[in-house]
Amino acid sequence: MRRVRPGAAARGVPAERALTSVTAGQEFADDERLEPVDLPRLWHVTLSVSGPAAPLPDIRRGLEQLAHDHPFLLTSRYAADHAEIRYWEEARDLHDAAAVALRLWGEHRLSAGLPPWEIVGLEVIDRDTYHQRIAEGYGPPPAAPVGVHPF
Predict the structure, then answer these.
(1) Which of 7, 45, 51, 56 has its CA 20 to 30 Å from the CA of residue 122?
(2) pTM for this prediction
């Protein structure tokens, strides 16, 4: 419950203020560069994890199981003490895409037999930014070959 300072009502300050959403004006609705907020978009996700060294065959098997369980995974690279998972996520906005990505490792670590590593990096970029980076020659190379590979 929100506390109100004594005398606030006497000064004309309402006890509770309702939060309201603000809609964009017509000039924004007519702007073709803006996408509707409620439509899902594609986000390129790179999730980096690391921790104590684990046997390489176990890591590969776990990442392959994760890719089998979640066919949206594009590519995974791994070493004895770290891994990187890259994929496309369909989500309404960056916050939703990041939330799903941050849950991915923890929720599926046991079922896929993955090491008890922690998430140490997360990048979520929209489709246009991903393709712009590739065209300009910087950023991650396109994920080819698709699958699970050592670094």
Answers:
(1) 56
(2) 0.70
